[in-house]
Protein: Lytic murein transglycosylase
Organism: Limimaricola pyoseonensis
Amino acid sequence: MRFACLSKPLLLAAGLAGLSALPAAAQEATGPKPPCGGEFGTWLEGVKAEAAAMGHAPETINAFFASVRPDEAVLRADRAQGVFQRDFIDFSRRLISENRIANGRANAEKHDAVFDRIEAEYGVPRGVLLAFWAFETDYGAVQGDFNTANALATLAHDCRRPELFRPQLLAAIELYERGGIEPASTTGAWAGEIGQVQMLPQDIIENGVDGDGDGRVDLKGSAADALISGGKMLSSLGWRPNEPWLQEIVLPQGIDLRLTGLDQKKTVSEWQALGVTGRNGALGAGNLPASVLLPMGQGGPAFLAYPNFDVYFEWNQSLVYVTTAAYFANRLEGAPVYDAGNPAPGLSGEQMVRLQEKLQARGHDVGGADGILGEKTREAVQAEQERLGLPADAWPTPGLLEAL
């Protein structure tokens, strides 16, 4: 659950082949990069030396790396990001089906005692974990067929994000010592996550729980182990019990759109004073801080994002994916389908890249011109909309691109 991807078979079923959602840590890592690139065998000797310096026995290190090989398919999956260029309505409709909702509710009933335990110990609602479980592996059915050790070594050797994956590769050695991984046979997602909720080795070491009491942590074969471990991890990332995460709202006519966006927070009481109401049910407690999120601008769906929504970004930093996961959790908890509204046409991936280049030229930090509408790009868009006298709803349109 610094859940890096959806497995390819699940994506094909969802019409989203090639999705690769990078872990938050991959996008936040800073500082000098560890050694990477060059001849794989030579690089691997450096990893072995580092593992030995950490206290791992030479025979353990050699046994772990005996079958490790680079995997070009991992690199191809890592480079595939185009699906995140879809807008929220398109993305959410592709991932959320009536069948997936029905299976979620059936699994909630089947594992009722497990979810009761998670809610009691960690305060994480079942809808939240069910949504993660669904999107990661279709409730455990499709867990990925990439060799985990090969995937981690490939990405640690690659010079794009070795600062994330080298520590995970070294953590996998410790996991091997604990009996939690077999380098030659353990499989999972392309970015090295294992099990039904797709956790990286370091996260398994820190948060793995023997949920079914059989004396071992089996995130691949035991739904109880996987779900309870996921609940513990969300708790460690800052989940606040008995609080909402995302709620659909209705905005009053004429609200100042400059107040919207995840970088703008007011208390629920302050939003209510401005005329914001829940579309279905009351808003959260009046003292809770919250932001108004308009994933497709003033004409599309509108949500109030509470502090727990921030925890989703510890899982993944794709705004469209995080919003869809949080919304799906609501659906699994009984919320109706959102009001899609009538949003203005957005930009194609190519147009988004051009927009981001223009924003960068104006001094905005958009996190790179990747064609993906993330929160940094939205903030820059909102600033430029305000400067140009346009509705500052952070939704980029062809009109804004032309104006820039």
Remarks:
- Residues 349-403 form one domain.
